[in-house]
Specification:
Layout (H helix, E strand, L loop, with lengths): L15 H13 L4 E8 L11 H11 L6 H9 L5 H9 L7 E6 L2 E9 H4 L2 H15 L5 H20 L14 E3 L8 H14 L4 E4 L2 H7 L2 E2 L5 H6 L10 H13 L5 E3 L5 H7 L2 H6 L2 E4 L4 H14 L8 E4 L5 H11 L5 E5 L1 H4 L9 E8 L2 E2 L15 H11 L7
Parallel strand pairs: 4-5, 4-10, 5-6, 7-8, 8-9, 9-10
Antiparallel strand pairs: 1-3, 1-11, 2-3, 11-12
Length: 404
């Protein structure tokens, strides 16, 4: 460890939605237990099991860190962060006993199990620890940096060249955010990307999910909820058919109008809209897309708002699934003048190098001893270890099996 730079630099270097979900669940279900599992979805240049010892060293260091006073002060300055939650963070430490790392042949197995409000925070750290350790083992140097910087300059040139098209809706121009923390090439490169976009195209680049970078560069921290928040409600004692409504109501009660973007794809867009009635449609500012065809998804949202007699231009669609800037720009043009849009772009910003990016996740698998699941609108993104529960969930929400 002493011979290399540590990966984790601060407990504040986490995605904002981890803090917002953490606060909501600490207040509503402080005693919940959960299990999270790490999954790599693609082939790798070498077996990830080779990273086991280094990952363990990084986790030992993570568990020694605490929030600095200036970091706590920053969180307290965000109007949706409650004072008691920041007080909780002031004494919080990750517990090494709640996370296990082992090698299973070539596979790297990482599981976090324990109180939900302790283990949920491991996710993003584990993902960018594995990413950075992985890419440190691949060829680096000036050639990789040169290619990455050329691609970054190309993105900025595209934004400047297409400025007219990206301000097609004068009231709501094209805006995007950095969502690249979990799958970044390295902390140093991620910071350079964020800083460069903030300096070069501030009219389009409006924030980052990385709370440390938001603090450091005076950017807006971006994020509301992720799948794990809604999935946990599958195990909180509500009728399964009602878990989405219970989760959305819990969010409304916690944030009272702040952080009003709802995630739609835990059991598919159609099932979500069945639950997203006039009450929720008026209370939430908009919707976030994370699987399935984005244009089709957006058209369904427009039809739904119009059916409820809500002016779509008073709401917003946020897209965040596998985007690059040209694809996001195409979606902006598709919906311009009909509904405001914004775009969370991850891997293509923070890990666009000559090396193939890892497709890794760390997802909640069970809560309170019961399986939980996501039924994705994208084939291959559904994740559940219990086929019986998955089949039951499909039946309850009439969700079709989608082949890859």
């Amino acid at each position: 460890m002493a011979n290399r730079e540590p990966v984790v630099r601060s407990l504040l270097e986490n995605d904002l939605y981890k803090f917002t979900m953490w606060q909501a669940l600490l207040h509503s279900h402080p005693g919940a237990q959960a299990e999270y599992a790490f999954v790599c979805r693609n082939t790798t240049a070498f077996p990830l099991a080779l990273l086991k010892e280094e990952v363990e060293e990084e986790l030992e260091r993570l568990c020694s860190l605490t929030f600095a006073q200036d970091e706590l002060d920053y969180l307290r300055s965000l109007r949706f962060m409650k004072s008691d939650f920041v007080d909780f963070l002031s004494v919080f430490r990750f517990q090494r006993r709640f996370i296990e790392v082992r090698a299973d042949g070539d596979r790297l197995v990482i599981k976090a199990k324990g109180p939900l409000v302790h283990v949920m925070g491991f996710e993003i750290f584990v993902l960018y620890i594995v990413n950075e350790l992985y890419f440190r083992r691949l060829p680096s140097g000036t050639e990789v940096q040169q290619v990455a910087r050329e691609r970054l300059r190309g993105k900025i040139a595209y934004l400047k060249e297409h400025k007219a098209a990206l301000t097609q809706d004068a009231e709501f121009p094209f805006i995007f955010f950095d969502f690249g923390l979990r799958r970044r090439y390295s902390g140093e490169w991620h910071e350079e990307v964020v800083r460069t976009f903030a300096e070069e195209v501030p009219e389009h680049f409006r924030g980052t999910s990385n709370v440390l970078f938001a603090k450091r560069y005076g950017l807006t921290p971006i994020g509301t909820m992720a799948h794990e928040y809604l999935q946990a409600y599958q195990a909180f004692g509500f009728r399964l058919r009602d878990f989405q409504k219970a989760a959305l109501e819990g969010w409304v009660q916690e944030y009272r109008g702040d952080l009003g973007t709802a995630l739609t794809d835990v059991v598919g867009m159609d099932a979500f809209l069945d639950d997203f009635d006039l009450y929720f449609a008026k209370l939430f500012d908009g919707l976030r897309h994370d699987s399935g065809d984005p244009a089709e998804w957006g058209e369904k949202a427009l039809v739904h708002y119009k059916k409820l007699r809500i002016d779509p231009r008073t709401k917003r669609l946020v897209f965040s699934d596998g985007l690059d800037i040209p694809r996001a720009a195409g979606l902006y043009r598709h919906f311009a003048g009909r509904i405001p849009t914004s775009f969370g772009i991850g891997t293509d910003l923070s890990n666009d190098t000559p090396h193939k990016a890892l497709n890794i996740v760390m997802k909640i698998m069970s809560c309170n001893g019961q399986p939980v699941a996501k039924l994705s609108d994208t084939p291959g993104k559904t994740l559940c270890e219990d086929e019986t529960f998955l089949a039951y969930l499909r039946q309850v929400f009439r969700h079709p099996v989608k082949s890859a």
